[in-house]
Amino acid sequence: MNHPAHPAPQAPRDLVGIGIGPFNLSLAALAHPLTGLDTVFYEQSPRFRWHPGLLIDGARVQVPFLADLVTLADPASDWSFLNYLRIRDRLFPFYFAERFHIQRAEYDAYCRWVSENLPAVRYGHHVDAVRWNPELRLFEVDFTQLDTDGEAEAVGRAHTRNVVLGIGTEPHVPAPLRALADAPDVAVVHAADYLDHRDALLAAGHVTVVGSGQSGAEVFLDLLRHRPAGGERLHWIGRTEAFAPMEYSKLGLEHFTPDYMRYFHALAEPVRDRLVAGQWQLYKGVDADILAAIHDELYRRTLDGGWPDAVLTPGVRVRAAGRVAGAGIELHLEHLQQGTRTRFTTDAVVLATGYRERPITPLLAGLDPYLRRDGKERLRVDEQFRLALDPAITATGCHVYVQNAERHTHGVGAPDLGLAAWRSATILNAVTGTQAYPLPARTAFTTFGLERRRPQIPPSRQIRTLTPLADGI
Description:
Blueprint: E1 15-18, H1 22-31, E2 39-43, H2 81-87, H3 91-97, H4 104-117, E3 121-123, E4 125-133, E5 138-146, E6 152-160, E7 162-165, E8 169-171, H5 178-182, E9 188-190, H6 194-203, E10 207-210, H7 214-225, E11 234-237, H8 258-265, H9 269-278, H10 280-283, H11 288-300, E12 310-313, E13 316-323, E14 329-335, E15 341-346, E16 348-351, E17 355-357, H12 391-394, E18 399-402, H13 407-410, H14 420-432
Parallel strand pairs: 1-2, 1-7, 2-3, 7-18, 9-16, 10-11, 10-16, 11-12
Antiparallel strand pairs: 4-5, 5-6, 8-17, 13-14, 14-15
Helix pairs in contact: 1-14, 7-11
């Protein structure tokens, strides 16, 4: 949308955030108490929503409740999950519930509470463009204010020294299934919309779940629990070699620490690409309790003899898909290890095929001449989450930061909620040029690389030089 007329420029903001998911909401919460820092955050949606189609009853967040928006950077923050419970008079029930991992619906409610109470948050604002104004030596952010029906109501422009992109991810639909997913009368839905279609899926004759990660497991378990014994008629397939548990050992989890993120960022680009591809079980595996619950439910259905009408096959990809007579859907499958192929008909498909980072380059088209890219034409991101820009911009102290758009430079921790507060604090320290949030120098027992350092001698082992005492004393 063109912005032909704007009011005279106001005083520039210190920071404009674009998108309000958990990561930019974390940034807004930690920025709130920093006096003198002028911020605003724009989001086109009318309210906070965090994967509403997957708020399945009982589904849990895969990180502990301490990985809220602020605690791992500022445990005393007013915006912590524990303070949310205190304000809602729920501290004692939570204490006795002894839940280290909270339900996904509760995390969504907590984030919504934060978003509704932060003054810098602006919903119903669609950002149209970001550009550099060399005369003002500031970024320009053009936006459209939307009414309650999502229609354009007014236009505006903000000038700012720093921009933080947190526009999140979008559902991924594999190419062979896109035409069916776009057809209005075909029962092919992404898991992101599962709850909206749940009743129809439960009533369908045969249902296939595609995708072997956490959302696939949760959808399969929910369908299994609500379909009759002997009449399950479920099929669960995925590309991974197994329905594998997520890596959850204590040392394994240290891949989600700032220490590992710094180590990963310093690696050569080809090494980083190879690592991310091989670390799928760190972030695409399934909660072991969910896998156990699926097995328990399947086993319970064998107690009277026979086997449930459910097929679970890993190592399979969908080669093609089409419609057959009536409302049926034909899937063409290939087993990746056997090299064999087959086809079968199902009545409905749930695509638990994950999410992809939403492209940020269209929004930054006005900055394209200033952007620096890597060997695969991806945007380069420095250790402090700043896009690499032309020195003509960075010399002014102005920067563009990204949140959850840097897996290629920072590794598997980029989308992890447990690093949200630390990354937000890192960005705010860079923006303010101060240690607004002191951060730990070390966060893991693992040393991820060979560092050329002189060994540190603990004080208890250091040898002190004593002054000799006088003779006879």
